[in-house]
Amino acid sequence: MISVEKDSEGPQTFVVYKRTWKEAIGAFARKAFEPAGAMAPMGVRLSPLGYALIFILIGSVVLYLQVWMRGSSDKKNPKLTLGEDGDVHTMNVDISMKELLAVSIDLAQKGGDRVREIREANKLAEKSKGETKEGANDPMTDGDLQSHIAIVHGFEKAFPHLKVVSEEHEKKGDEVHTVEMPKKTHPEVDEVIKTDQRVTYEDITVWVDPLDATQEYTEDLRQYVTTMVCVAIKGKPTIGVIHKPFEHRTAWAWVGHGHSKGLNVLERKAGEGQAQKIIVSRSHAGSVEQVAKQMLGDKTEVIPAGGAGYKVLSLFEGIADAYIHVTLIKKWDICAGNALLLAMNGHMTTLGGEEINYSAEGNPKNEGGLLATLVDHQKFLEKFAPEAKKLAEKH
């Protein structure tokens, strides 16, 4: 049963009692069919038309409430939703970005805990999802799956109507009900960020990579492994979290608002005649090295590494001047790093210089190559223009 009250000084509030809609309608229908004397006075019975009118009335009321519960265009007020249990729940149509950042950090770390525990117990349960476009094995482990459950279902508990795109998928089972409610506050976030912003649900897409560098994870190359969460607003990377579970270290940033204290820019601005350092994927370091030396000179040093998250962090640590990828890469691999770079005045684009759109409705594949830098982005784009043209012709 629902009663609606109007506060003269505030927005409309809704009081939801324990009886579900199913129970209320069922009770009403049972009353309609009680024998004469129980429902109608003095032995009067309803005609078939009377029963029909009752059912029409019930249907009309249910239809009206369903439409009404979809909410109004007033985004300051909550709207009602009908849950699977038949209960009516309130839902805000916008969300606190500061809370979403805190939850993203908490879940990236919880996913990382599962990744670390499974690796240390050596219970990977590895299987193959097939081969990458380059012909390399594309493995999946229990670390990927358990991290996915911790992160994705954690978001479902904290913000049930959020759009979340994850690299992994699983059949829902009883284990998802054991996922804890994530924390909506974080000490470092509260210390660094003093303001908040509310954004409508429909504008938000969360990208999750529950275990980046799975191949290296199976080889026990732990330094490359990360868990990543990215929040995109209208397709633009806005919040990024990269967590290194084996180092218990987390880098995060909210573009235009602040970043984690450990996220520093140790830039390596290459001078004239100085060898430039390019970090690339281990799976195709040879082919990129050839291209890089053609474009940047024979002194160019190519550093092979695993994991897109690791490669982005290497730019902040001064290990490399640019992160370059010349083949297809998925957006859950790069969105968090893109947000971190934007927050620190860096750049991540296709090799053709195009910004990458992270809307949920778009293609999850980025096929235009990748260039990520903290400095000299335009110079690198100019050097790699011929390679960008080749990629464009392929796609």
Automatic annotation (TrEMBL):
Tell me which cofactor or cofactors this protein depends on: Mg(2+)
**Spans traversing the lipid bilayer:** 49-69
The pathway where this protein functions is: Polyol metabolism; myo-inositol biosynthesis; myo-inositol from D-glucose 6-phosphate: step 2/2
Q: Name one GO cellular component term.
A: membrane
User: What segments bear the compositional bias annotation Basic and acidic residues?
Assistant: 121-136
> Where is Mg(2+) annotated to bind?
E167, D209, L211, D212, D333
- Region described as Disordered: spans on this chain: 121-142
Does the keyword Cell inner membrane feature in the UniProt annotation? no
Q: What class of enzyme is it?
A: hydrolase
Q: Which reaction does it catalyse?
A: a myo-inositol phosphate + H2O = myo-inositol + phosphate
Its keywords, alphabetically, are: Hydrolase, Magnesium, Membrane, Metal-binding, Transmembrane, Transmembrane helix
Annotated InterPro entries: CysQ/Inositol_MonoPase (IPR050725), Inositol_monophosphatase-like (IPR000760)
GO MF term set: 3'-nucleotidase activity; inositol monophosphate phosphatase activity; metal ion binding
- The EC code for this enzyme is 3.1.3.25
Membrane-related topology note: Single-pass membrane protein
Q: List localization entries.
A: Membrane
Where is this protein chiefly located?
membrane
Q: Which Pfam families does the protein's record reference?
A: Inositol_P
What protein family is recorded? Belongs to the inositol monophosphatase superfamily.
Name of the molecule in the record: inositol-phosphate phosphatase
